[in-house]
Amino acid sequence: MSATTGETGETGETGETGVTAAPRRRPSLAGLRLLLSSPPSAAAAVVLVVVVLVALFDEQIAPAGANDVDVTQRLQAPGPGHWFGTDDLGRDVLSRVVLGAKVSLQVGAVAVGFSLVAGVLVGLFAGFYGRWVDTVLMRFMDVLFAFPAILLAIAVIAVLGPGTTNAMIAIGITYTPVFARVTRSAVLGVRETVYVRASRSTGASDLRLLFRHVLPNAAPPVIVQTSVSLAFAVLAEAALSFVGLGTQPPDPSWGRMLSEGRGYIDLAWWIAVFPGLAIVLLVLSFNLLGDGLRDVLDPQQRSALQAGKRTPGGRRGRRSR
Amino acid sequence: MSVLEVRDLRVELDTPRGTAHIVNGLDYTVDAGETVAIVGESGSGKSVSVMALLGLLPGHARVGGSARFEDRELVGASESELRTVRGNGIGMVFQDPMTSLNPVLTIGRQVSEGLLAHRLVPSKKAARERAADLLADVGLPDPRGVLDRYPHQLSGGMRQRVVIAIALAGNPRLLIADEATTALDVTVQAQILDLVARLQDEHGTGVVWITHDLGVVAGTADRVLVMYGGRCVEDGTVQEVFDAPAHPYTRGLLGSLPSLESPTEDLVAIPGTPPPPTDLPPGCVFHPRCPVRGDARCATEQPPLVPVGSSGTHRAATFYGLEER
Amino acid sequence: MTGFALRRTLQALVVLVGVSVVAFALVHLVPGDPVRLALGTRFDQATYDALRERAGLDQPLLTQFFTWFGGAVTGDLGVSFRSGDPVTLLILERLPATASLAVASIVVALLIAVPLGTASALRPRSVVDGAGTVLSQIGISVPEFWMGIMLILVFAGTLGWFPAGGYVPLSEDPVGWLRSLVLPAVTTGLVSGSVLTRFTRSSVLEALSAEHVRTARAKGLGARAVLNWHVLRNALLPLVTVTGVQLAYLLSGVVVVEIVFAWPGLGQLALQSVQARDYPVLQGAVLLFALVFLVLNLVVDLLYSKLDPRISA
Fold first, then answer.
1. Is A296 exposed, middle or buried (0-12, 13-18, 19+ CB in 10 A)?
2. Are residues B130 and B221 in the same domain?
3. In the sheet where B18-31 sits, what is the strand order?
4. pLDDT tens per residue across span A252-282
5. In chain B, fewer beta carbons within 10 Å around the N or the C end?
């Protein structure tokens, strides 16, 4: 479990956390095998690998360009030549879905990378130093958390202006509090352990302690949260693009295609259906992988969530005297 | 007169690791006013054997044999028949009073529920009155005040008294106590044992006391049944079994009985652990852990439960010493 | 109990002040002159000056904040840069539509979640459980707006049972109100319902395995009494909390669903104000959403402590 530490600081490739998270160490290899032995996780991993490959080789895969307008081919139903049909400008829907994968993955990965780094740092310092540092940082996180996610993202974009980059920042800010909370509670769990106190008394510097000894303990819940947040981020990007605040034309984006296809829903259902299915598939995979990761990395998290509501006393041992 | 007559009781459960043979042919009788203790390590099937009587096992458990409560057959009885027996003819007390009461309902509600379900009282008001009487009966101070309290507001001993009050609500002829004092500390444990003995005297209730604590057996039981691997390996009066244990397993248990002079931590005198019910050994179930293994048949044949001595009440299932009997 | 309530309320107030600062900062973080941005290239100087003065933009920043905050506390959120109408009025006009949608959605969500989650938990690994697990997993992965479009395609387009969009006020036509509400409420309700189904299932499963359930059965209670009083009552208590939090999250989904169904609510207002660069309106809408979120969470926490006897101790 502890071997997965190194992931926390990275931003770029978080999209494949579950697949590539295992650095060359045995415990995590075993964990990876365990993860992939569950059919839903394995299926999710396969889908994610395929989506990443599609995004990497989109130009080669897509039968046509994203903006190859052909008015003679307007609103063609799915069939040979245009497997997903064409839109109101005669553009090939399949090509646009393929070319839209990159945007979804990029925005998801960068936004979650942002939340991850910012949230983990906030959670680490808040949990480790406690007192006023904790109060100030976490109350600020509460403030961000109090806005409905999409609305906060919309408000941030209102300030920064629409566009893909700003959507990444907006989504990143929105999901920072979740990472801060998850990290903080993990840090609180180990802060008072003998080991950390012992290291402290031997004069290890705070920073060294934080990153060498405290952070590894926060890794499992953070990794689980990363996968789940990727799902949310992909949804959020689609929503922002849908309302016209995310990815701008001419770049293809699934959310945008949905809003363009909406007007033709009676005439040409395929324009809105296929990009929607693509979103569902990607988000579902991140969610399934998150569930699988939770089972492997953090089995007690579920029960701990529920146990918190139960009687404080709990069971006593079976010993008679 | 016997209240409960158990004959060849068997319980099987299908698990991912194969069929678990948890109880494998159990015979015993409980008379009115009598206390029968069932003793064994955890995993010996003792709890399951009594849960099976009331149909409290998960739906996929298979129960076989016979268990007659008064004139009613419990094995194979329908859920609605069993319901009329539960909490009415047979009361049950569980191990851990911390968890055996519902944390979000008042004590009053939990005691009167059973009374109302069996229509033992005409109204909710009468149920409340009766509940207060029951709580007084089990020695709770301020029974009326306790009615409106929640379990977490009571101590462990008080909670176990409440659980006993619930078990007694239907004037049961049989009380089953499943490790009822295990989770309590020693003084409270003694109080609870006294309480059950007193109630038993007053009402002539038969008691089945499931425990792994031989001190409890010596203090309360008339007869004792030693269980191992889902079987009875020895039974008899407490005096017979404690004074002249015939089975190596019983001897092991008694050898590890903690005394006041030299308290030992746990029952560790017999090395090893009981076999998993999915993988019982051939021959005598105790054979792999047995310090004697004095007979060629031990590894291949299950020894029958046969009389020891001349009393007719003492029996053991072992080849060891069989010839001298 | 009172100590807990007091502490919790104070904490919510602190966060609320923080929320106000963020909402206030929105207008002032915009690069350039917000009034000029809002009015576009063609405007007359008099309107411009009036708006700037009305918004108090010539005052020092701190003064501006306290003026705005003081106004907000008394219900005055300033005026729209576009129409000159009071923001509070604009918000109040939109409130019934959004409130109808949010409440109807949570009702739909609970109508799905409680029966399905309970049925799944009572028969683990059965067909119902399998279907429930798959559907709820898909439910949380579907974008609300796409779900909305699909429902319109089927139920408004092909079948023609419900209108494809638009809001009918309750006071005008109760039947029309209900018909207009069905599709948007089902859209958001399905997503929240999926989350709540998963929660209900695990909560009921845990309650079922609790030892007090065995005590209840050993008393001779009927299956229904055991289920209602000793399983569901315990399992659904935490559902109160989660439902409250879901209602708050639901507001997030509502923003986009309102666009899909041309629903004249607060989400639509917020989005229109972004497109129109009408910052005071956006500010007001954002503040109100956050306020509702905080109040809901507070109420849920206080309610839970009332419902669960263990907490008030």
1. buried
2. no
3. B18-31, B2-15, B61-69, B72-73
4. 888 888 888 787 777 777 878 888 888 888 8
5. N
Number of domains in chain B: 2
ipTM exceeding 0.90? no
**Segments forming the whole domain that contains residue B184:** 1-89+170-268
Q: Looking at the domain assignment, is residue B94 inside a domain?
A: no
Least CB-CB distance to A316: which of B42, B98, B212? Answer: B98
Interface of A with C in 230-269 (CB under 8 A): 231, 235, 238-239, 242-245, 255, 258-259, 261-262, 265-266, 269
What are the pLDDT tens digits along chain C (313 aa)?
A: 567 788 888 888 888 888 888 888 877 777 767 777 667 666 677 777 777 776 667 777 788 888 888 888 888 888 787 777 888 889 998 888 888 898 899 999 999 999 999 999 888 888 888 888 888 888 888 988 888 888 888 888 778 788 887 788 878 888 888 888 899 999 999 888 998 998 899 889 888 888 889 889 888 888 888 888 899 888 888 888 788 878 877 877 788 889 888 889 888 898 888 888 888 888 888 888 888 888 888 888 888 777 777 765 4
Which residue of chain A comes nearest to B263, CA vs CA?
A321
Distance from CA of A140 to the nearest CA of C (A): 7
Query: Is C289's Cβ below 8 Å from some Cβ in A?
Result: yes
Confirm whether B318 is domain-assigned.
no
Nearest CA in chain C to B165: C219
Among candidate residues B268, B296, B318, the one where a domain is terminated: B268
Task: Judge whether B159 is closer than 8 Å to chain A, CB to CB.
Answer: no
Subunits adjacent to chain C (3 or more Cβ pairs under 8 Å): A, B
Give alpha helix (H) positions in chain C: 2-29, 34-39, 45-55, 61-73, 87-122, 127-139, 144-151, 174-208, 211-218, 223-225, 233-260, 266-275, 279-307, 309-312
C215–B103 C-beta distance less than 8 A: no
* Residue B14 and residue B60 in contact, taking contact as beta carbons nearer than 8 Å: yes
Please check whether residue B110 lies inside any domain of the structure: yes
> What CATH code is carried by the domain that includes residue B67?
3.40.50.300
In a domain, B282, yes or no: no
**B20 and B122 share a domain?**
no
